Amino acid sequence: MDLVGACRAFVSVSERGSFTLGAAAAGIPQPVASRRIAALEQHLGDRLFDRSTRRAVLTPFGRDVLPAAQRLVGLADAFEHDARRARRRPLRLAVPDWCGARDLAHLDAEARDHDLVLDFRPARPARRADLVRTQEVRVALTAVPADEEARWRVPLGVAAAVPPSAHTVYLETLRVSRGADGPARRVLLQPEDDVPHIRDRLVHLRDSLGLRPSQVVIAESLVTAVADVLGSADLLVCSAAQAAELELHWRPLGEIGLVRGYALAATYSDDGERLGPLSRAIAHCLGAREGDE
Asked: I need a surface site. Which of 52, 136, 156, 223 has the fewest CB within 10 A?
């Protein structure tokens, strides 16, 4: 028997003195209210209402147990209210610190359609992993190798202030010939790509091509990296979507395929599952192409 539902019908009918009005106030049909109260009477072993009158008049037994029924209904209402409030508590999500405010706002708006409020914590890759490990956030978008557990994949290339003449950029063209004047062109890695599965592969390619160590640089921030590119012939490693947002000219790399990989790390598995319907919106924030998530 649904004890709370039966008590709710009992309290509603007793407060209004009518099965019809009480059922309407409880939001149930009158026959349903009658059946629930009859089941409650059977469960308790005595009559709650005097059936000899047209009005819903409480029996002495009904008057004695009514306060307890009212307390039970009040506790049930308070429980449901607290549960709704708990579900609306913001879910802290660590995201890459380069994600745009507009994209995150759209992600948050879509999350609310799924009864979920997000609280973003922008951070760099290592910090995001620490935040979820120390439970300072409930979920984090962590940087992982694209060929392993990645849920979203973001192909990378290089971007320049001036459109490169070739449709594909080969880093071997950055090799400095003997006697050349001027600074060597550099490839700048933003902090988001300062992870082994991207940084180490690019450094290995640099060495195999005979480039100078100073030609592959990890920038202090995305802002400083873009500023350097805008004032020089340097190249920024980034995604096509990121280059478009920065108004830079993007090209794929010829010798190597670099891909950012992202996965969800959650303190509780249920939190990761709640973000499942937002997969495409998350992909948009990351600049992942359709079908890469």
From this structure: 52
How many Cα atoms are found within 13 Å in the side-chain-facing hemisphere of 134?
8
Domains 91-150+262-286 and 154-260 agree in fold: yes
Q: Where are the domains of the chain?
A: 3-87, 91-150+262-286, 154-260
Q: What is the DSSP letter of 178?
A: T
Helix (H, G, I), strand (E, B) or coil at 161: coil
Fold of the domain built from segment(s) 91-150+262-286: D-Maltodextrin-Binding Protein; domain 2 (3.40.190)
> Which pLDDT score, from 0 to 100, does residue 88 have?
67
CATH number of the structural domain 154-260 = 3.40.190.290
* Count of all residues that appear for the chain in the document: 293
Element (H, E) at 139: strand 139-145
**What gap in Å lies between CA 150 and CA 152, rounded to an integer?**
6
- How confident is the model over 64-88, as pLDDT tens digits? 999 999 999 999 888 887 777 666 6
Per-residue pLDDT at 291? 46
